[in-house]
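hey can u check if this looks right to u? its 238 residues, i copy pasted from the old doc so theres a chance i mangled smth
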Amino acid sequence: MSMNFSEFKKLIGADPLNREPETLRARQSSAEFEAAAAEAEAFEEKLQGALNIEAPTELLADIKAISRQAPKQRRWMPLAIAASMLIAVGAAGLVWKQSHQWDSVEAYVADHYSHDGSKLVAQADSPVPGQDVQRIMARLDAEADQKLLGRVTFIKFCPTPDGRGAHMVVSTDQGPMTIIFMPETQVDDGNRVEFEQMHALLVSLEHGSAAIIGEKSQNVENLVPLVRESIKPGFVGA
């Protein structure tokens, strides 16, 4: 049975680098499929580039050394060098800002959900196949048990404060809620975040941490046992 376009977009949205035979056959079936796959791959490359930015330590050290020069020395610095140093300071500041986007995990959670959280909840209209969830979790050196797999209605890779993570929407008896899995991030267990009409709870896990996000009318605490028991370390390098 061939994959329809809606199923294909959901699959590559979650895992743009998917190279399984069924996915490749669907991609090659029409220009529309190929364009959607190329767009997802381009976004993934931009995401990885943003995550791999490192603080420009050598450049910052040079700038600090110049700032320690005597005022008389700085006064006679050639104009061209002074101008290029101003550009360097601006570039260093931009890169530094890009590599430290959030002052805290709490700020990250609020910013991340405000960006596309509500839209993704609205798109989560059907269960995601368990093998697709496990494929993403494996890329994060983790796995989900059956209790969680049966609830996931949307999943994709996402940036976190310390690398890549997973953004999930799960079904509950209170309606859909969001889980952001942060495999490389440590949190203060039980810390709360409130923003707009939402609230979140940070949960420490055996492998990283998670944020459980819901509307203020939803009891996010109810998902803590499921999250803590269902997200486990997987095989490193899977």
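The radius of gyration is 22 Å.
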